[in-house]
Write a structure and sequence with these properties.
By secondary structure, the protein is mainly alpha-helical. It has four helices and no strands. It is elongated, with a radius of gyration of 17 Å.
């Protein structure tokens, strides 16, 4: 299974260690890809505020946000909560507190309605 299959799915559960690792990975990949492609577009067009740079930045931001949301859904499943609670992460300040909760909260031990305990595998 490659990294895109691991990140871009909402099925199953994700323990806090893997959630932290994958969340940081998605954030770094998104930031790096945005920076590199924006620099390349700026070199090609000569305009750092051009439409090409903005389009590339938006595309990478959407992909990184989608990946992060899917990771949150799987982490919520590990906490035996509905994945729709990921929308809380978009509320200013509350979203940051929510993310810290996802990083540190202990998942449900054993099987829950979203699948087997990821630590048992």
């Amino acid at each position: 299974m490659n990294i895109f299959q691991i990140i871009f799915t909402t099925e199953g559960r994700l323990n806090r260690g893997r959630f932290f690792k994958y969340y940081i990975l998605v954030t770094l990949m998104g930031a790096t890809a945005t920076f590199v492609t924006s620099c390349m577009a700026t070199l090609l067009t000569g305009d750092p505020n051009g439409a090409l740079v903005k389009t590339i930045t938006v595309i990478w931001a959407i992909a990184a946000t989608a990946g992060a949301c899917m990771l949150m859904v799987r982490r919520l499943h590990d906490l035996n909560k509905n994945g729709a609670f990921f929308w809380v992460s978009f509320i200013p300040v509350v979203g940051l507190i929510f993310l810290v909760y996802l990083f540190f909260a202990e998942g449900t031990i054993g099987y829950n309605k979203y699948g087997a305990d990821p630590l048992e595998n």
